[in-house]
Amino acid sequence: MASLEFDLIDRYFKEPFGPLLASHATRVPLGIGDDCAMLNPDPGHTLFVSTDTLVSGVHFYPDVAPQDLGWKALAVNLSDLAASGAEPLGFTLALSLPALDPAWLHHFSDGLLRIAQTHRCPLVGGDTTKTNLPGGLSITVTVFGQAPALHSGFPRSSAVEGHRLWAQGLPGLARIGLLLEADQRGLYDTVAMQPDSAVWTALKAGMPQAVRLRACQQLNCPQPQIQLGLQLRNLAAACLDTSDGLSGDVAHIAQASQVAVLIKESALLDAWHRAFPEWIGQLNLNERQWLLDCALTGGDDYGLCFTAAPTADVALRQLSGPHALFELGMVTAGQGVWLQSQGDASLNPVPLVKRSYTHF
Amino acid sequence: MASLEFDLIDRYFKEPFGPLLASHATRVPLGIGDDCAMLNPDPGHTLFVSTDTLVSGVHFYPDVAPQDLGWKALAVNLSDLAASGAEPLGFTLALSLPALDPAWLHHFSDGLLRIAQTHRCPLVGGDTTKTNLPGGLSITVTVFGQAPALHSGFPRSSAVEGHRLWAQGLPGLARIGLLLEADQRGLYDTVAMQPDSAVWTALKAGMPQAVRLRACQQLNCPQPQIQLGLQLRNLAAACLDTSDGLSGDVAHIAQASQVAVLIKESALLDAWHRAFPEWIGQLNLNERQWLLDCALTGGDDYGLCFTAAPTADVALRQLSGPHALFELGMVTAGQGVWLQSQGDASLNPVPLVKRSYTHF
Questions:
Q1: Taking CB atoms and an 8 Å limit, are A100 and B360 in contact across chains?
Q2: A3-148: which CATH topology?
Q3: I need a surface site. Which of A27, A123, A304, B255 has the fewest CB within 10 A?
Q4: A26 touches chain B (CB under 8 A)
Q5: ipTM more than 0.95?
C-alpha cells in the first residue's frame, strides 16, 4: 500500500470507524494499520467466519446509491452470521476501485458505518486496491462472529425427519425489488426468469407504492436477522439465509441432511397475504402463481430458513410475530424438495425443479 | 450461489482441500459448505486476521502461471501472519472469475493447495463470483492465525530509540523479477520507476541466470516467513513484511512509533554481496546505486523487517544464517526514514523521499 491509499483509508475508514473500534478494545486489541488485526472472542466461545463478494454489474447496478452498497456489503455477510446463530465481532473490507471518487467513498463509508454501528461490528482491517478496468468495482467483506462453544452453528446437515420447516420474512420480495429496479433502467429482460412479462406488467400496474418501497428496500438494504439467529440457538437445527431463492436454499438442507423437504405453497401465500392483505386479495390465479414462482426462485432475500423439532413449536410461535416467522413446510423421509400446491388437500407433492439464480 | 458454482467449488476446492481440513477438525469443526465456518483457536490464544486482494493487471500479469497465482494469493496473506508472529489456522478465498476455465482452475487450486499444505493452513470457506468484465479476475484471501494471548503481535508502534533495525531476505529482489517479467512482455516502461533504462540494460546483460531465476521466483512464489515470525516472538518489537518497498515500509514504523529510523546503505549492499558475491563484485558505482534504489523502493518482497532491543542481538545473530537475516540500521530520536550513504563514515544521514509503489 502506498501513500494515497493510506490517506484514503484514514479519511474514509480508519477515522469514521475509529470510535466503534475503540469501544471494542477488549475483543479487538489491534485494529486497522498493522499487518494483522487481533481478535479475542470471549472465553469459551467459538469463532465464526464468512466471506461474500459483491461485484458491479453482477450483484448490483453500477449506479446504485453508494450508501446502500456500503450497507449491503456488510449486511449479506452479517446474514451468514445470523444463519449460524453467531454474534458479530468485526469484519475486514477488501475494496477494488476503478477510480478514486471522494464523494462516492464518503457515502459508501457512511452506509457501511451505519450497519456496523447497528450491529456493533467494528471494521478491523482491510485492503484497498486499484483496478484498471472501468466498472471493475468489487467489494469483499469477511465477517467474524462468536457463539458459546456448545452451540452447533445450525449446520445444514442437521435436519431430521419430523422437523418442521420455518421461514422468516417475505421470500421473493427482493426479487420484486430487482425487477422494479431493472424495469426502471429498461433492463427487465436481462433479469426476468419468467418468460411471460404480461403477468409482471399487470402485477406492477396494480402494485401499491408501499410494496414497491419495501421491495426495493429489501433488495438494497436487507436487514440481517442477527437477533433472531441468537434467539434460535436452542430451537433451530439446520438453518441458512435465503440468498439463492427458497427452493435452491432448501435443497441445500435436503441434500446435506439426506432428507426430503416439503414446501406448502399456501404457507407462502399466507405470509404474503399477512403483509399486504389488500393487494394479495386482489390478485388473480396467474398473478398468485407468478408470485409463488418469485418466492421459490428469487434470490437476495437474506431472511432465515430453518428446520426445528416440533417441541420448539410453542417458543417459535412466540417469536413469529415480531420476526415475521412462519411455518413453511416439513421434513420427511426421502430426498429433494417437494411442493404441495395451493388448495390441494391431498398430500401429493411434486418434485420441484431447482430454478435459482446462477452466475455462470 | 447456484448449481454450477457448487460443482466448481466441490471439484477444485472442497475435494482437493478436504484432507487438510479434516486433519484440522479440532481447530476447524465446520468448514466449507455452511453459511459460516467455525474456528477454535487453542485455549489462551488470540486470533490474528489479515486480508489481501490480488487484481489482474495490477498485482499480476493476466498470463501469469495459475499455479504461481494460487501460491502467491495465500503467500502474501501468510506473510502478514509472519510479520505478526502468528501461527496459521486457516483462510477463506473470494474469487471473482470472468470465465470458467477448468484447466486454469485446476492449476490455480494446485498452487494454492501446495502452499496451504506447506504451512498447514486449511481452506475453511469462500465465495466464487462471476464478473462480466473480461480480464476482471481478482482474488481476495482472508487468513486467520493465532498466538498466545501474551504475544504483542509486533505492532508498528512499538519501535523505541536505541533499537536495531533488522531485515530479512534480499530487499529489491522481487522488483528485479518484475522488471525481468515486464521486459519479456515488452512492458519495461510501464513498471520502471528509474527513468534511465541504460543502467538496467547493462545490469541485465551481465545478470547471471541464477539471479534471474531467484528474482522471478521471489516475485511469483514468495516464501512467507512463518517460522521466523514464530522465532521472533520474544525478540522483535515492531515488525512488518516488506511489501511496499523498504523505505515506505520502514516509514510506517517511524510514523507509528514517532521515531526516526536510519537505514545503512552498506548493510543492504552487503546482503546482496553475500547472496551473489561474483555478480555484485562486478557492478560499477551506477549499477550499485541502481540496485540500492531498487532495494529501497521496490515492493512485493515479503521478507520481514523489524526492530529489536540490543539485548536480542546474540539470539538474532544465531537466527541470521538460516533466515538470511541482517542488521540494516537503527532507531533514533526524531522522525522519518534516513539513509546513511555507502562509504560515508560520518553520521550525516539524509531524509529519504518515499518512493514506494502507488496504485492510484
A1: yes
A2: 60s Ribosomal Protein L30; Chain: A; (3.30.1330)
A3: B255
A4: no
A5: no
